[in-house]
Amino acid sequence: MNVFTKQNVVTLVVVFGAIIFGMVLAGGLGLTPKGQTSPEPSPAAAASAGQSVAGLPSFADLAEQVSPAVVTIEASTFERTRGGRMSDPFEFFFGPRRREQQDRPKDEDEEFRSDSGGSGFVVSADGLVVTNNHVIRGAEQVRVRIGNTAYDAEVKGIDAATDLALLKIDAGDDLPFLPLGDSDDLRPGDWVMAIGSPLELANTVTVGVVSAKGRRINISPETTSFESFIQTDAAINFGNSGGPLVNLSGLVVGINTAINWGSENIGFAVPVNILRQVLPQLRDAGRVRRGYLGIGVNDVTDRAAEAFGLESTEGALVSNVIPGLPADQGGLQAGDIILTVDGRTIENTRELIDYVSNQGPEAKVELGILREGKRLKKTIQLAERPSETGEPEEDEGPEDAGIEWLGLRYQDISPGLRSNHGIPEDLEGVWVTDISPRSPLYEEGVRSGELINIITEVNGRSVGSVAEFEELVRDAQSGSRLRFYLRRFGRGQELQPLFVFPAVP
Known about the structure:
This protein is an alpha+beta fold. It has 12 helices and 29 strands.
C-alpha cells in the first residue's frame, strides 16, 4: 500500500470516529429527538396532573379537595381569681392557653381571659363540626372560623373519655363536609394527610405515614381506659388538635389529638371508628352513656397463660371486682379469665372494654369465663360507667371540694378510679384532682396530671372521706404545720408514698 492510500484510510477512520463521538455527545445532552411512541412528561406537567414524580404522589389535589371542610376553633374562657389560675393537666400534651390579664387595682380580684385555638372539620352539610374536647374544655365562648367568617358555635356534646366534642353552627347554607372512613383498614406505612391550624396558621397541610396503631399514652385519667391512638409522623403541632387525618381518598381516618414533646414526628390521632361509635349520642343526648361491669382487667401475658394452663394469650384477666357493682352481683371473681362475651372471642382487654361500653347501661351480656380450669357462663346486667372527669353527671352529687389556702381540688375515691388505676379496695382517703401552682403541696413536689395522689392521713389520723379531711384541716390551729401522708399511683402501679407538711395560714 502506498503512502497516499495509507493517508486516505487514516482520514476516513478519523472522520468516522468524529461522527460517532458527535452522535453520542448529542444524545447525552438531549439534542437528538426521542421516538414519538414513548413521550415522557416533564416533572411540572406530571405534578400538575396529580401524577407520581420520582415515585412520590402529589398531594395537591387531595389538599384542595379536603381543605374547604376544615375549620379553625376559637375558644375563650374568663377567670376571676386572686391566687392564680389552676393548673391544667392537658397542657403537658397541648401547651398552655394564651391569657390576657385585665388591669385592675391590687386589692380587687383579677380577671384573666384564656384564648385557646384548635382545629375541627365539618361532618354534615347542616353544620355539625367535630373537634377535640380539650380544645373547648371549660370555654364560655366558642366560635368556628371558616375562611374569614367566624360563627358562634353551640356545644352539642362532649366526651372526655375519648377527648371528642361535637359543635353546631348555622352558616345559612349547606357546608362542604368530610366523609368518614374506616380506621380499622389502616396499616402502618399507609400515607395520611393532617390538616388544621397549627399556631393559628389556617389550612396548614402536612403529610406522612401511619407509624403504628393502638397506642396508649395516658393523656389523663379520664382517657386512660379508651386510648387506642393512631401514631403518625405527619407533623401535628399546637393548634392541629381536632383537625382531620385523612387517607389518599379524602376520607377521615382519625382526629389529630396530641404530640410528644420530647421528639419530632410523633403525633397521635383518635381513630375515626371511635368517633363513629360516640357521634350519635353526642348529637342526640350531648354525652355518652357506657356499659360498665365494675372490674379491673389485664391482658393475658405469656407467663399468665402458662400459669393458668392456657394454650394462648387470648382473653382478659380479672384483677379485681368492685363490691356491689354488676360483676360482683353476677358472681365474677378475681382470677377469672374472660374468654368470650355474647359468644364473641375476646383477644385482649381493649376488645372487652369496647364491646361492653358500646352495649350501654341496663344491657345484659353473657360472659364465658375460665375459673380454676373450668369453663363457666355468667349473665350480667350492666350499669352506667362512672365519669372520671371530676365533672358531675346527672344525680351524681356535688362537684369537687376545695379549701382555698391549700390550692387543691379533691373528691372521694370513685369506683371507676379504683378499677382504672389499681387503687386497692381497702385504701381510704381523698383523691386530689387538681393542684394550683400556688399550693404549698406544689412547692413540695406534688403534681396533678398523670399521677393519682390520695391523701390518706392528716396528722397521723386516717381520712375516709372529704368531710373527714376538711374537718381535720379546719380544726388545725393557725400557724401550725400539718402532716399529710399521700399514697401515689401511676400507670396502674403504686409509687413511693410521700409526706408533705403544709403550714396553716
